[in-house]
Structures are given as C-alpha cells and as structure tokens.
Amino acid sequence: MSHSSPTNNSTRPDLDESINVTIAHNPSLITPAAAREFSNPGVDKSPLSLATFSLCAVMLIIGGAVLGNTEGSLFSYTNFVKPNYVRGKAPGVTDDAVMPPKAIVDVYVKKGQSLYSAKCNGCHGADAKGDGANFPSLVGSAWVTGPSERFSQVIMNGLQGPTSTGKVYGAGIMPAQGGGMSPQDLAFVMTFVRNSFGNTVGDVITPEMAQAAMDISAKRAKAGSAVTAEELKEHEKDLPGEKMDPATLIDPITLKVVEAKK
Ligand code: HEC
C-alpha cells in the first residue's frame, strides 16, 4: 500500500493535519483544556508595538508641556490660591532674606561653638575652665581677652609654656590648632571664646582679620613650632582689618550684612 502525504490528500480531509478534526465537526466538543490551546480569534494578545508606545509617550510629553506652559494653566499655583492672597513673612524678614537677620556677634558665637567642641573642648573642657593641672582655663585668660593678634597666634601655632599666668601646664605644650581651619572658622572660634564662658570682650573677629592672623603665622621666623610667651610679646596688638560693630545685622545663612531698608 502506497503512502501519500496525508496533507496532500484532497479526498481525505480528515488526514490533513492543518485541520482540527474535532473543531471542524463540532466546536461544542472542545474541552476547557483544549480551548486554552487555541487563542480566541476575537482578542489580539500580541503586545503593544514599540512604535505605538513611543508615539503615545511623545504625545503625552508634548501635551503635558503645552498644558503646563500656558498661563493660568492646569498646574499654575495661582489657580489654587484665593484672589488677593499675599504670603506672610516672619517678623523682621526683608525681601531678600529668608531668616530674620541677627547681630553678627551672636551668629559668630553660635557658629564658633561647634568649632570649639571639635577643636578645644577635649583639653580645655566644655566650660573652658581647664583642669588646673594639665590644661589652663580660658575664662578670664589675658591671652584670650587681650589683643586679638596674640590670641590668634596661640591657636594657629600652639603654645610652649609658660602661660599667661606664668604657670606651665601638664606636658607644657599645646599643639597647633589652625590646621584645617578656614579664616572664617578661626573668626568664629575666636569670637566665640572671647564672648563665652563669662568672657565679655564684646568684639567680632572678622574673617578678614583671621586671614591676616594666618598670614602672620605663616611668616613667623619659627614657623611650624609653638609660640612662646617671649615671642607673643611681638603680637601684643589687635589683628589688622576693619573693625565691625558687633550689633551689625547679618543674614544668619549667607552671613552677608543686611542693608537697612531706605
Ligand atoms: C591637645 C590639648 C589642647 C587643645 C586641643 C587646645 N589646647 Fe589650648 N592649651 C593646651 C595646653 C596644655 C595649654 C598650656 C600650655 C603650656 O602650659 O605650655 C594651652 C594653652 C592655651 C591658651 C593660653 C591660655 C593662657 O592664659 O595662657 C589659650 C588661649 C588656648 N590654649 C586656647 C585654645 C583654643 C582656643 C583651642 C581650640 C581652638 C585650644 N586651646 C585647643 C592644650 C590644648
């Protein structure tokens, strides 16, 4: 018996493999399991083409831009605020300041506090009173409250005793503290120590003065070694630079002087 290809046999459609005999004869015979094998011809399950998707995305972006750009548009803030509404300001706030201005001495003292904690606290103590044996007190110290250039050189270079009282403390040497400080940092910490713990010098060390202190320190003949009481006699003066009224109002964020409104 010769065997011709079943699909080519037009007289025996039941042998044609492209025809599902069951469906051809009675669709109601399809079991649910079998039904899942065939896609429902009415629903196209193929994924959205990338071209269509991209086109939709582009249209959404353009549409959003158009809506968002129009005056009084969908996203306009003014649409949600009552007419004639004016935003309130905190007392004392000027048009260009976000925070109320404060006296420069208060701002510098506040900023200097954290520098003191990081740089001096460990030795001189949280109350700056020292310990009487290893670390001297900074409260009422003549070298803290006296001429600012002398104080600045102790911080910048450290100190080889004796101290202002003639006493030598502990190992007799304070290491230099200027490393890593910006002129602004030095200005903050000096202003802080001169106006805290009961010290009431009442002045402000400006970043300009602190920069001068750094220049003086760098030009020392014995640069790199701690200053001594003897050498400090050369620095018995105030740092150069324009003095500032400690009550001058500055913006506590930008630190810029707030001009009085005309
Ligand atoms: C590692 C410990 C240490 C640190 C940190 C330190 N000091 Fe000192 N300081 C000393 C010692 C010790 C002396 C006394 C040195 C001596 O007897 O020779 C001294 C002395 C001083 C004096 C002289 C006081 C006087 O009346 O003679 C001043 C002013 C001073 N320190 C300020 C500061 C400031 C401000 C800071 C932080 C920026 C600071 N010190 C950080 C240990 C330290």
What does this 3D model show about the protein?
By secondary structure, the protein is mainly alpha-helical. It folds into three domains: 1-46, no CATH class; 50-80, no CATH class; 102-250, Cytochrome Bc1 Complex, Chain D, domain 2 (Orthogonal Bundle). The protein has ten helices and five strands. The strands form two sheets. Strands 3-2-4 form a three-stranded mixed β-sheet. A two-stranded antiparallel ribbon has the order 1-5. Helix 4 (104-119) crosses helix 8 (183-194), helix 7 crosses helix 9 and helix 8 crosses helix 9. The protein is elongated, with a radius of gyration of 41 Å. It starts with 20 loop residues before the first helix and ends in a 12-residue tail after the last strand. The model is unreliable at 1-6 (pLDDT under 50). Heme C (HEC) is lined by residues 119-120, 122-124, 135-136, 138, 141, 143-144, 151, 154-155, 159-161, 163-164, 168-170, 172-175, 177, 189, 193.
Q: Give the percentage of residues in beta strands.
A: under 5%
What do the pLDDT scores average to? 85
Largest sheet: 3 strands, mixed
Number of strands: 5
> Please, how many domains?
3
Radius of gyration, whole Å: 41 Å
Task: State the separation between the terminal residues, measured CA to CA.
Answer: 117 Å
Uncertain parts: 1-6
* Individual helix count: 10
CATH homologous superfamily assignment of the largest domain: Cytochrome c-like domain
Bound molecules: heme C
Structural class: mainly alpha
The CATH class of the largest domain is: Mainly Alpha
Q: Given the C-alpha coordinates, what overall shape results?
A: elongated
SSE pattern, N- to C-terminal: HHHEHHHHEEHHEHE
